[in-house]
UniProtKB/TrEMBL annotation:
Transmembrane residue ranges: 36-56, 76-98, 105-123, 129-151, 163-183, 195-213, 244-263, 283-302, 309-330, 336-361, 373-395, 401-422
Domain (Major facilitator superfamily (MFS) profile) ranges: 37-423
GO molecular function list: transmembrane transporter activity
Protein name as catalogued: Monocarboxylate transporter 10
Keyword set, alphabetical order: Membrane, Transmembrane, Transmembrane helix
Keyword set includes Hydrolase: no
Superkingdom of the source species: Eukaryota
Residue ranges, compositional bias (Polar residues): 16-25
């Protein structure tokens, strides 16, 4: 008897589909999908809380470094931008090490590097030594900590993976919000050196959290599959795709100005006469807006009829417009509006990075594509904030710095428009909808159609309204793959639900 593939809506039920899960038949579960995995989920959330909380609030530390070290704003900006860049630049290396040595070893070693970097930076006033300690050591250590949080959940979760992703990524948002007032309180009372020593205690908590990771027990099927050949993270074949090249160029232009508000917004506010405790809250407002926007846009973009690539272009453009208009905000209320506006579109942008990359290169080349993408954009990420600081030093205000940041984002938006010109256009084989059959028999909703090889008949219903007409509006199955591989998109549980299901009977 030949098999047929049945496509049906999620709310419909098919009585012929066996209800017994595959793992019950084989007697071996795919993964725990809970249990001790929730402990690992909590540990990963703590690590993201600390790692992103420290990185995203460097702008508050930046203002104190300028005063205490008596250095140019450009020299101080290099400290945070190099640390930011190191976290992304070393991401592919950290991911590859996780595959070979395990997430527990990599994250633990990363915690040690981070602790040594923060501690040694607290005993010097030489900015060049701080480059080596805080920027390089802490940046590299944070990369070794951040990558495992994205990879370890995929080992322990399947059905509950979106929920676990949401919990972990919520840690980064909460960390950014909570660390801002904490930074200002400690820096204003104890100074930046004591601040770094207190952060060493946070780094020690990261080491303890990393020790909670443990390899997947051998009784699970996923533990056996981990020994198979894994995809390459340094696969250069993705550079043969012109669409991917333009995608990298667009992202590089965007990241010239992307981290400017994270580092310079508090100092910009203080230059306008806003008190330090209020200026330190601006990055928190941006983070809150970004976190909420990921959930809202996740709900909206769950509709496959929405062209997600056009939404991405709109987010690029609106972040550019917000940064360009930022100099017009001369009081605290205006800066809050800018922070909330930039954060809202940033949330959607972050939500679509992995999905758009998967749509451009295909799901099979997602890991090497992301490795190459993050490796390249780390360069403009490093140079962007110091460039803004140099403009501030020359002009005496941040007005031109935000203009340049917005202009770079606008150029990235225009380059993004070239990607569809180089995308392959593939037409799906037509599937009969069975309208004639429905007219004859109201109870029948299926029609047989032959596939390309003529062997398997396909039983299908008319679900054309579920499909987007754009190559860039991904089906939910591909979105689910991207999210499961990365685990770094807040509100991802809104993207992974399939409106259609496919079952062999």
């Amino acid at each position: 008897m030949r098999k047929a593939r049945v496509f049906f809506k999620s709310e419909e039920k098919t009585p012929n589909v066996p209800s017994t899960p595959t793992n019950e038949v084989t007697g071996e579960a795919e993964c725990p999908d809970g249990g001790y995995g929730w402990v690992i989920c909590l540990a990963a959330a703590v690590i993201q809380f600390i790692t992103l909380g420290i990185h995203n609030n460097f702008g508050i530390l930046y203002t104190y470094l300028i005063k205490d070290l008596q250095v140019d704003p450009t020299e101080a900006a290099w400290i945070g931008s190099i640390a930011f860049g190191m976290m992304f630049l070393c991401g592919p290396i950290a991911s590859s090490l996780c595959q070979r040595c395990g997430c527990r070893v990599v994250a633990s070693v990363g915690g040690v590097f981070g602790l040594l970097g923060l501690l040694s930076a607290s005993f010097t006033s030489n900015v060049y030594v701080i480059y080596l300690t805080y920027s390089v050591l802490w940046g590299f250590g944070s990369s070794l900590n951040y990558a495992p949080t994205m990879l370890v959940l995929g080992e322990y979760f399947d059905k509950h993976l979106p929920l676990a992703n949401g919990i972990v990524t919520a840690g980064s948002g909460v960390g950014t919000m909570a660390m801002g007032p904490f930074y200002h309180f400690v820096l204003s009372n104890l100074g930046w050196k004591m601040m770094l020593r207190i952060l060493c205690a946070f780094a020690f908590v990261m080491i303890l959290s990393a020790l909670l990771y443990r390899p997947l027990p051998a009784r699970y099927k996923r533990a056996h599959s981990q020994h198979k050949e894994r995809p390459k993270f340094f696969d250069p074949s993705v550079w043969k795709m012109k669409s991917f090249v333009f995608w990298v160029v667009s992202m590089s232009l965007l990241f010239v100005g992307y981290f400017v508000p994270f580092i310079h917004l508090p100092n910009h506010a203080e230059n306008l006469g806003i008190p330090g405790h209020k200026a330190s809250l601006l990055v928190g407002y941006l983070s809150i807006s970004s976190t909420v926007a990921r959930v809202i846009f996740g709900l909206v973009l769950d509709d496959p009829r929405i062209n997600r690539f056009y939404v991405l272009q709109s987010c690029f453009l609106m972040m550019a417009v917000a940064s360009t208009l930022c100099p017009l905000a001369l009081d605290y209320t205006g800066l809050i509006i800018y922070a909330i506006s930039f954060g809202a579109f940033d949330g959607c942008f972050v939500l679509l990075i992995a999905i758009t990359t998967s749509d451009i290169v295909g799901c099979g080349k997602l890991p090497p594509a992301l490795g190459n993408l993050y490796g390249v954009i780390s360069i403009p990420m490093i140079f962007g904030p110091p460039l803004a600081a140099l403009i501030f030093k020359i002009s005496g205000s941040y007005q031109n710095a935000f203009f340049v940041a917005g202009g770079a984002m606008v150029c990235g938006t225009f380059t993004l428009s070239l990607i569809p010109l180089f995308m392959p256009h593939k037409k799906s084989p037509p599937v009969k909808t069975g309208r004639e059959l429905l007219d004859k028999d109201d109870t029948s909703k299926e029609v047989l159609d032959e596939n390309s090889d003529g062997e398997k008949p396909i039983i299908a219903v008319d679900t054309s309204f579920l499909f987007d007409t754009s190559n860039f509006a991904m089906r939910n199955s591909l979105s689910c793959l991207a999210l499961n591989r990365l685990g770094d998109l807040c509100g991802s549980h809104y993207l992974v639900g399939n409106p259609d299901r496919e079952t062999d009977v």
